Task: structure prediction
Amino acid sequence: MDYVNSERTGQATLPTAIKILIAGGFGVGKTTLVGSVSETKPLRTEEVLSEQGVGVDDISGVEAKSTTTVAMDFGRITISEELVLYLFGTPGQDRFWFVWDELTIGALGAVVLADTRRLADCFPSVDYFERARLPFIVAVNCFENARRYSLDEVRLALDLDPEVPVMLCDARQRQSSKDVLVALVEHVKRQGLTRRPEPVGH
Amino acid sequence: MTMPDEEPVWLDDAAGPVVRPYAVTGGRAKPANSFNVVALVLSTRSAPPSEVGIAPEQAKIIHLCQRPLALAEVAAHLSLPLGTVRVLLDGLIAQGFVQVNDPRQAATLPDDSVFEALINGLRQL
Result:
């Protein structure tokens, strides 16, 4: 059998990967937004976390480590051959903040999705990104039958800094999700280098 | 159209990976790298080498990454946890079979041209 020369010559130039986080409370539409604007249906990836512990029903006595799996949904938008955008839904459970820390490293910014029926659900996300100094915007996902609050009311309730944009969206609609992402990128650009993301380190 | 489940599912051990990560990585559990989930992986060759011993999952990575894929995409396509793929990449990098660019090293914000490309690209979707 002949061997094919499968070596490539030289180093190829890899595109730039940009990461944007989609955060918010449980059931607020994070994966819906990722899916409505990504080029494929959302993919799922897992981080397995080990924690020391004694397995109660472990009769062998050998395995003293338990593991927890944290799942993240994400999507890809190929902007050009040089630029790829990834959207990562943050895991919802508060006890895994260090997964948020890992996701925040190298992120351009974040969208905090809010549901006016359960506005308090997005407090932890807002608080996290403020402390991480990661630029973010708040997008109020308009659910049917939800009372419409004014954006000023939302801003007040979330105690947001004046420069943080607040907007309405419909995460099911591609155009609306695009508008949200454009608003975030423009916000990050305005923020410039004055705010450098850093892990919060819970 | 039905959307996927709204929230990530918190799987427990019972619903863990089909293949135990240790089995895939030849017993190695800890990666030497800490690649970002969006670190891009590109194969340096068009096919896995036939003359060198290589794990089946590493061969799959070489096939998958004929175009640049993020670490998270590789992990999702192989149905393996991120940490396991990081370990597999250690071996592939050592052998020069893939190149990885890790944006973790780029601590600064992108320059204006990237912002413009991103905004225009999103608008044109």
User: Anything to note?
Assistant: Chain B has one domain: 17-123.
